[in-house]
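Worked example 3 (structure in, sequence out).
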């Protein structure tokens, strides 16, 4: 029994500094706070069940995010179905910037919808959570160069998806094909 308490304490000790970032990541990944919270809960349950098998506690962060990603992939169809039934998030606070902020969020969601689960995860971790190429390479068991290449391709695909959507809806585009009032995707750094 004492070992179980020690294991539980160690799990929470490792989880505490990551929990708020993990919650924000999940909400960004699925595009909805409620669904993000559901993903966190499911992943934490899986992590707790598998914690005894973690050999190196120094790898806890990447191990935990791998569990989230695997759970996300497993639940992706369910998330997409629920997201299609959910109204876009709005904030009742009166703010002149709110319409453009909401437009930017909507466009980011549209652009990311054209990505696979793995690519969406990669973009979210790098662009929205600030993970480095080398950290992502370790997590995805790849090289930093392969991660950079994949991110470049993801950005291209996101721009193409967004451009098609904006042309279809006749919304304004700048001469570069980027929405006039917001920049959703960073330009490639060549």
């Amino acid at each position: 029994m004492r070992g179980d308490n020690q294991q539980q304490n160690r799990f929470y000790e490792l989880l505490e500094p990551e929990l708020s970032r993990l919650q924000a990541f999940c909400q960004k990944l699925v595009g909805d706070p409620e669904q993000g919270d559901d993903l966190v809960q499911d992943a934490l349950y899986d992590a707790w069940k598998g914690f005894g098998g973690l050999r190196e506690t120094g790898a806890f962060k990447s191990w935990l995010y791998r569990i989230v990603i695997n759970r996300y992939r497993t639940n992706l169809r369910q998330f997409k179905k629920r997201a299609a039934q959910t109204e876009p998030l709005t904030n009742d606070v009166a703010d002149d910037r709110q319409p453009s902020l909401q437009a930017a969020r909507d466009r980011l969601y549209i652009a990311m919808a054209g990505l696979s689960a793995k690519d969406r995860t990669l973009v979210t971790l790098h662009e929205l959570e600030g993970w480095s190429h080398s950290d992502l390479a370790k997590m995805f068991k790849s090289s930093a160069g392969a991660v950079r290449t994949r991110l470049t391709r993801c950005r291209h695909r996101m721009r193409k998806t967004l451009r098609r959507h904006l042309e279809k809806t006749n919304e304004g585009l700048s001469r570069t094909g980027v929405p006039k009032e917001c920049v959703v995707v960073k330009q490639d750094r060549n």
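Notes: Residues 7 and 52 are 8 Å apart (CA to CA). The chain has two domains: 1-85, 97-190.
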